[in-house]
Amino acid sequence: xxxxxxxxxxxxxxxxxxxxxxxxxxxxxxxxxxxxxxxxxxxxxxxxxxxxxxxxxxxxxxxxxxxxxxxxxxxxxxxxxxxxxxxxxxxxxxxxxxxxxxxxxxxxxxxxxxxxxxxxxxxxxxxxxxxxxxxxxxxxxxxxxxxxxxxxxxxxxxxxxxxxxxxxxxxxxxxxxxxxxxxxxxxxxxxxxxxxxxxxxxxxxxxxxxxxxxxxxxxxxxxxxxxxxxxxxxxxxxxxxxxxxxxxxxxxxxxxxxxxxxxxxxxxxxxxxxxxxxxxxxxxxxxxxxxxxxxxxxxxxxxxxxx
Length: 307
Prior knowledge:
This protein is α+β, with helices and mostly antiparallel strands. The chain is 41% helix and 21% strand. It has four helices and twelve strands, in the order ββαβββββααββαβββ. It has helices spanning 29-40, 122-213, 218-228, 254-265; strands at 5-11, 19-24, 45-48, 54-55, 73-80, 110-111, 117-118, 232-239, 242-249, 269-273, 278-279, 296-304. The strands form three sheets. A five-stranded mixed sheet has the order 2-1-5-3-4, sandwiched between helices. A five-stranded mixed sheet has the order 9-8-12-10-11. It has a two-stranded antiparallel ribbon with strand order 6-7. Strand 8 and strand 9 form a beta hairpin. The longest helix is centred in the middle third of the chain and has 92 residues, at 122-213. The relative contact order is 0.07.
């Protein structure tokens, strides 16, 4: 029966990129170390994250299969390079079985201060490695917390910048709207002033016409009439905010003008003359414009019938 697969994952820290390889359960531990040396270099140390077991190249377990060591399924190791393994002077005589070239099992050399060679027992190396890995995990955790704080600061900074930009755009939009409203108001004022000026000119013209028609001398009437009375009536009607302009015949009825205005403004209105002031009644609608004295240039005002 063929053995199952074992996925070996090695990291130098919790945040580092993993180095992954697949082995068979019947492969030996030394084959894993050969794979690890390609990643961490010779003399590396492995710490099983789940079981807290530590393996070095000098362990007797090198000749055991992964299945015999309980390394099955997915196994995660923290790897420590040789130059980062904790060092300490030996407490007793150097053991030939660990670390020496002539000793059985072979292992890593550990150098103390002043380049003096010292060796640690396997249990001492494991204990120091556990302490080192625990400290390393604490450092990595603190670094991760600090990195998260920096990310949060950056998120807040970006959020504040976006809010400032949004407020700035809203102010610019409000400014544009205010300017547009001011321009429309100015345009309406100018239009109203133009209408008032036109009405004033019409009044002045009508005054002159009346003065000319009441004169006892017929000569001015004969000379003026052909120029003013050409059979056309240029009508200007002011209705609410709209100004309608159309030319009628003197023979047209006032009802023709009213129908035109109602068709344009889509509502019922009544008509009145600006000068002399006169509100036209229903009986005036059947009169011609000339019979009502509406000749030449005429300005009328239309009012909503509901007002």
